[in-house]
Amino acid sequence: MTPKSGDTALLIIDVQNAFFDQYSGDYAYRANEILSRIKGLISRARKAGVPIIYVQHDEDKGLPFEPGKPGWLINPEIASMKEDLVIHKRTPDSFYGTALQAELESRGIRSLIIAGFQTEWCIDTTVRRAYSLEYDVTVVEDAHSTCDTKILKAPQIIAHHNSIFGGRFAKLKKAEDIDFKAAK
Q1: CA distance 4 to 154
Q2: What residue ranges define each of the domains in the chain, with the CATH number in brackets?
Q3: Which end of the chain is more exposed for a tag (fewer CB within 10 A), N or C?
């Protein structure tokens, strides 16, 4: 699907405090570097008038993303503004059980630029779902991250998923190559 002028949004997934070392010992790989890139993306999107949608993960009491707890909050360096849409989810799929698709449709958005956390969970699931819903998807290949697992290190997970995303489900672009003026 070819995006039309004005049909693009920046989708920021789960850039919440629990992914940063001051809140958790299990923080994401290069979290602050990713945050800096996302901050730049948001700034450029705002200047171009491209809508920004934040997705915030909610978990049960006692878990890192328990609503109202410090780890659940969107990182203050990229805090949403009143004109931004914030979607709350309870699964890795930003569409499942949320108003995301209805909000995108009501705004005429058909093209998504996606960045955030966690590569193999919420980024992967949302990218595949957006593809299946026929959105034009761009993954910011250097603006998503994850944590090491017992099997793979974070850089391996990120590289593997970028190869899958770019092979079928999305276009891949580096943060510095995202042109919101052209996307708008």
Answers
A1: 35
A2: 8-183 (3.40.50.850)
A3: N
